[in-house]
Write a structure and sequence with these properties.
By secondary structure, this protein is mainly α. 69% of the residues lie in helices and 1% in strands.
């Protein structure tokens, strides 16, 4: 037995010995709040969204529209169905329909980061396939990501500032939408019981974390003892280790302080840990295995998670769609930012004469740095094999972290150009430049109205980005600019 397996096995045994009582939380993984009805509703709605996206994908294939991302088509069509129901019937009817999807949408949204981990977990393999670039190339790539985000964020904020309707500030002159929520006293960690004893009250999220720690420890102990186990059990135990590592790393990463998460996102921790788990398990259970690995199974749920954003867009229409002035501002800004993002990257990174240009394997993935990962993956496939989707996801993640950390600071720094007091400006600028990570950053600051607008904006900006890529001649022009054939 190798030294690494001895250490892993010893650690797993120690965890099992000290956390054995947490095994009582395992049933809560399948019974949300110990309610089979809630769990059933969640899975039925999640599977309905999953199946809907698959149906949309099949229809697009039949129509020969293979360049249109099925995730985008499913998201927009689901939103359109809800809006059409509202127009044909009434808002209460469409709200009831949206409420049917709510459990699945919440579930898929909560775990979307988990579904994004597989491409990043194998990022090291993509980097290893690259030529050995010098420090100047990597320096240019880093500068381009920062400059590209700044250009997109600034352009979006400037357009939104020009078009956003002016709203009367509150009587006290304070911007309530940007205020942090009032502090709430934490719920007591213990609840009294008869006989003077106290029992720990554990939230569902904490119960999930504790249950997966126990499951993961059991799996790693099994890997350490694999020479003593039948060969037929090696792959299932290896997959259990990989699954538990991915879930645990993601959930534990969310416990980090918000300021840390903006730089070290839970998705980074999740991908790095999953990569290490895959190395330990080795060839017995590859993390990505032609659709059969643990990473493949997680990744298959990403399209459904993006489709569910159509319901979230519907739920926030009063903030960006129902008012014609708001809608004109959001639509124009998202359209401009989509073009600016592509144009700045194409001229700054892809164009060989640019002082910051980098080779095509690095520059082409950056074209998708300001859109959702799912659309970035689809866009990479549309550009061609030289554009690695894993590198696109990496550039998207880095851009999102930059935006979440610096987005509001940039707007505040130039009040003469950007209207930082407007939630529309804050939300549209963040959604167009820093997608879901930036949106999560607004939520963490208590800027809920701007966060809702940001969520809708990242969907619309991604739509604009995808439509521009699908215009005749755009992809061939990009490839020609990069001196690629085809």
């Amino acid at each position: 037995m190798s030294l690494s397996k001895v250490v892993v096995g010893s650690t797993a045994a120690l965890i099992l010995a000290t956390r054995a009582s947490d095994a009582r939380h395992i049933p809560r993984l399948v019974l949300e709040d110990n309610s089979p009805v809630k769990t059933l509703k969640m899975w039925i709605s999640a599977l309905a969204i999953f199946g809907y996206e698959r149906v949309v994908a099949a229809i697009l294939r039949q129509l020969g529209m293979t360049r249109m991302p099925s995730t985008l088509a499913a998201m927009l069509s689901l939103f359109s169905i809800l809006r059409a129901t509202q127009k044909i019937c009434d808002r209460s009817t469409s709200d009831k329909l949206a409420q049917l999807f709510r459990p699945g949408v919440d579930f898929l949204g909560k775990w979307m980061g988990l579904f994004l981990a597989p491409p990043l977990a194998s990022l090291d393999a993509s980097i290893a396939r690259l030529p050995r670039y010098g420090p100047s190339v990597w320096g240019n790539a880093t500068a381009l990501l920062g400059a590209g985000w700044t250009a997109t964020h600034s352009a979006a904020a400037a357009v939104a500032t020009t078009l956003a309707p002016r709203k009367t500030p509150p009587a006290n002159g304070k911007q309530l939408t940007n205020a942090k929520p009032a502090s709430v006293s934490p719920a007591p960690a213990k609840a009294g019981m008869s006989g003077g004893k106290e029992a720990e009250v554990v939230s569902l999220d904490e119960a999930v974390r504790r249950a997966w720690v126990v499951i993961g420890a059991a799996g790693y102990l099994g890997v350490a003892c694999s020479p003593l186990l039948p060969a037929a059990l090696h792959r299932p135990i290896g997959m259990l280790c990989e699954a538990s590592t991915t879930v645990n790393a993601f959930t534990l990463g969310k416990l980090l302080p918000t300021t840390v998460q903006r730089v070290l996102h839970p998705l980074v921790i999740c991908a790095f840990s999953s990569n290490l788990a895959g190395r330990l398990v080795g060839p017995v259970a590859p993390y990505l295995d032609n659709g059969n690995g643990v990473g493949d199974l997680f990744f298959k749920w990403l399209p459904a998670a993006v489709t569910g954003l159509g319901v979230r867009m519907y739920n926030t229409t009063e903030l960006w769609l129902d008012n014609p002035e708001d809608f004109r501002c959001v639509l124009a800004t998202c359209s401009v930012s989509g073009c600016v993002s592509l144009g700045v990257t194409a001229l700054g990174a892809v164009f060989p004469q640019s002082p910051l240009s980098v080779p095509a394997p690095l520059s082409l993935p950056m074209l998708h740095r300001s859109v959702m990962s799912a659309l970035g993956i689809e866009g990479s496939l549309a550009i061609g094999p030289e554009c690695d989707p894993k590198l696109a996801v990496a550039s998207i993640l880095i851009t999102g972290c930059i935006g979440a950390s610096l987005g509001n600071a940039l707007l505040e720094a130039v009040p003469g150009i950007f209207d930082f007091t407007s939630p529309v400006v804050r939300g549209v600028a963040m959604g167009c430049s820093a997608h879901s990570i930036g949106t999560a950053g607004l939520i963490s600051m208590g800027d809920t109205e701007a966060a809702a607008i940001s969520g809708a904006s990242m969907c619309l900006a991604g739509t604009a980005h995808t439509l521009v890529l699908n215009l005749p001649g755009v992809v061939p022009a990009i490839r020609q600019l990069a001196a690629l054939k085809g």
